[in-house]
Amino acid sequence: MTIMLTSKANCDLILNRARGLAKGNEILIALHDRETPAINAYIKSLSNACKTAGIKFINFQEGVDYGIKKEEITGVIRLKPCAENRYNHLEGFPVITKSYVAEAVSTQLGSAFCNTDIKIYGPEVLVIGRSEDVGKAIAKRLSRFGWTVRMAGRNLREDILTERCLDADIIVSATGQKDLITAKRMRFNQTLIDVGGGDINIDDALKVGVQAVTPKVGGIGPLTAALLVQDLVTK
Predict the structure, then answer these.
(1) Which of 15, 125, 146, 198 has fewest C-beta within 10 Å?
(2) Between the CA atoms of 163, 157, 134 and 101, what dihedral angle is there, to the nearest 10 degrees?
(3) How confident is the model at residue 57 (pLDDT cuts 50, 70, 90)?
(4) Which H helix or E strand runs over 11?
């Protein structure tokens, strides 16, 4: 039976700790240029994380007076897509530049292997996506487990990407390309982590009988948000 790698237990632990450390006057602001399904899902995760931790969250809309002063803002996060020069008037604000995705992936995998029936020994990991703050950061983090980590770009020749997927024990896909990983790139007893928000076809994963997979809702996004909020209240 396929195990759904939900992040609820990890999120609860992290956010309960954050709530105990929060002063109650922290404010997190999210900036973005437009709405996309991935942006909307992450905004919801941030909002829920802030509510649980007892801090204020603002999904910033230009032209709205939120009645707050610059010095009251604890953190500002730019969500892609977000033009670098659009919010230049916020220069000097506490912009969060750290990416929490790699930490979320390693936390999720580490706890899964410790607390579930997932059994993989000396696995080969394939990370798809080569961005500095996501794909490469994930690969670097997972190599600390002593695993063999390979990387691939989403534009790799189709047959080669398929072959590498089938060779891997764990696939972490971070491209944002819908259904990049379908049945032909899966095999029985793999572990699949979807960072891109739709990269992995969940229905195919269940049919193939993979060992574990992150769900469409409640996977890496909420854990990434929880880690960000925890960092925010401990600064």
Answers:
(1) 146
(2) -40
(3) very high
(4) helix 8-21
